[in-house]
Amino acid sequence: MLALLAGCATGVGQRQPSQALPADQSAFGRSVQAQVASHGGLSGFRLLPNGPEAFRARAELIRNAQKSLDLQYYIVHDGISTRALVDELLKAADRGVRIRILLDDTTSDGLDDVIATLAEHPNIQIRLFNPLHLGRTTGVTRAMGRLFNLSQQHRRMHNKLWIADDSMAIVGGRNLGDEYFDAEPNLNFTDIDLLSVGPAAAHLGQSFDQYWNSALSRPIGEFLLFQPTAKDLAKTRKRLEAWLATAHLQRPALYQQLMAYRSDPRMATWRNELIWANSQVLWDAPSKVLARDEPDPHLLLTTQLAPQLADVHQELMLVSAYFVPREPGLLYLTGRADAGVAVSLLTNSLEATDVPAVHGGYAPYRKALLQHGVKLYELRRQPGEMPRRKGLGLHGSSDSSLHSKAMIFDRQRVFIGSFNFDARSVLWNTEVGVLVNSPELAERTRELALQGMSPALSYQAKLQGGNVVWVTEDNHQLHTLTTEPGDLWRRFNAWMSRAIGLEKML
Has 405 been annotated as catalytic? Predict the structure, then answer.
């Protein structure tokens, strides 16, 4: 009751609107503008296909930023990579950079006080999107609060953005956490981010502003019974410095890998490697989450992407960590395949997925897709003893699970962002991504997908005698499995999601 009263008593006036600071207000932004002008106003792009590069890019953007940093994330997990980035963010705030951080409310589960303490810095603002107003104190009360408000609480902000001085941005599938940056000993998510420079970054900034200024975004301080103080922030900074110093001693190899950006920055080199092209930034309207049932199509990213999906004539390649096509997706994919389009998909296998319930939504569609000639590849669980690989980041330090999201149209255009080919991305979560009209970037993304589809890394699902079988390679020998790989617990979860009809929610 006290928490409720504290929330109700908070003044609405604290939520002041703000906009992206123009790129020309910083020397860094002006240098990017000059580079863009030399390429006829096109946007520049570079893939970030592995964890260490993706982490380094974020850290270097913090160091290069002079006026503003805007961060938008679905999940933030504690760990050495996150703490290192927070340390850099605090240093940027100290030198006068304005930092706005917009988090989906799920991020703050049990961490409201810690996250809010960072907002005590005069140059850091933190807001929660679609927040839970009741029962925030414990995991149990939060779960109960969501249970009684499912119509809004199963709809989340899934966007992932990192924007520096409104001139450079990172968009893609990675959340923040060690498992996304090759810093977690037990799990590595293979993913793709896109470094975007120039007009595309500014348009991503416009999407951020729309979410930041939405009535659904509230300052995190509104949900605290006791507000943190400047002393709390000072204590947090000391604990952070001590923790990182201990990590340096206890995990020196990982620490050196992550902190390499300090002594060997790569941003100047990457700026010379950019692919310049026309592009379009696509995003869901924030109000998508307020729909009583399915949202109005005019609010959806998929409506903006529809012309590209309809205009593919030769090859469509999908990379989707979570793939649940439902009937509309099935009809679209089989229709394209029947029209002569080479359609292929890379998704997770049952043994590799981190959400077996989603696999239960995908599996019933396999046979129909295969019957129409759609090629299906399911990434295998990559155990720790495997040799290190480049590209998608499949490596030997931990188990791997696909988390990438990309679409390649006729080897001419590529769409990269937070969007999965499933009902959750289409209907319930909000998403963001960039469509780039570039054969070169499309081919580089296609090469990454083909690597993941190789027999040594994936199972290719095929039909044999009317049944689905899985073809793969071990010790350089192809062989066929007639039973789907995956333990009993995963099978049970996949079966249960089908049995209770969760498909529309997956």
Answer: yes
In this model, does residue 133 exceed pLDDT 80? no
pLDDT, tens digit, 9 for 90 and up, residues 350-380: 999 989 999 999 999 999 999 999 999 999 9
- Residue 177 sits in the same domain as residue 156: yes
Per-residue pLDDT, 383 = 62
Is residue 410 part of the annotated active site? The answer reads yes
Task: Show which of 237, 272, 307 is a domain's final residue.
Answer: 272
Distance CA 77, CA 163 (A): 20
Q: Which of 367, 410, 462, 504 is catalytic?
A: 410
Q: Examine the residue annotation and report whether 476 is marked as an active-site residue of this protein.
A: no
pLDDT of residue 85: 97
Do residues 168 and 210 both lie within one domain?
yes
Active-site annotation holder among 158, 288, 359, 395: 158
Q: Is 91 a catalytic residue?
A: no
Q: Which residue among the candidates 70, 104, 165, 193 is catalytic per the annotation?
A: 165
Catalytic, out of 288, 359, 395, 403: 403
What's the DSSP call for residue 430? B
Interior CA angle at 47 toward 317 and 441, to 5°? Answer: 55
- Are 284 and 431 in contact by the 8 Å Cβ rule? The answer is yes
> DSSP string of 167-190?
TEEEEES--BSGGGTT--SSEEEE
Q: Nearest-CA neighbor of 261 among 122, 116, 63, 432?
A: 63
Return all residues near 109 (Cβ < 8 A) that are at least 6 apart.
139, 142
Structural domain boundaries, residue 500 = 284-505
Mark which of 221, 238, 272 sits at the end of a domain. Answer: 272
Q: What is the pLDDT of residues 142-197, one digit of tens each?
A: 778 777 777 677 889 999 999 999 999 999 999 999 999 999 888 889 999 999 99
Is 248 labeled as catalytic in the residue annotation? no
Active site residue 182: no
pLDDT for 386: 38
Catalytic residue, chosen from 67, 160, 203, 359, is: 160
> Average pLDDT, whole number, for the chain?
91
The tally of CA atoms less than 13 A away on the side-chain side of residue 365 is: 24
Could you tell me if residue 151 is inside a domain? yes
Q: What is the CATH number of the domain that holds 293?
A: 3.30.870.10
> Tens digit of pLDDT for each residue in 384-395?
433 333 444 433
Distance CA 351, CA 485 (A): 6
Q: Give exposure, 117-130, as e/b (b: 16+ Cβ within 10 Å).
A: bbbbbebbbbbbbb
Domain assignment present for 9: no
Furthest-apart CA pair in the chain: how many Å?
A: 70
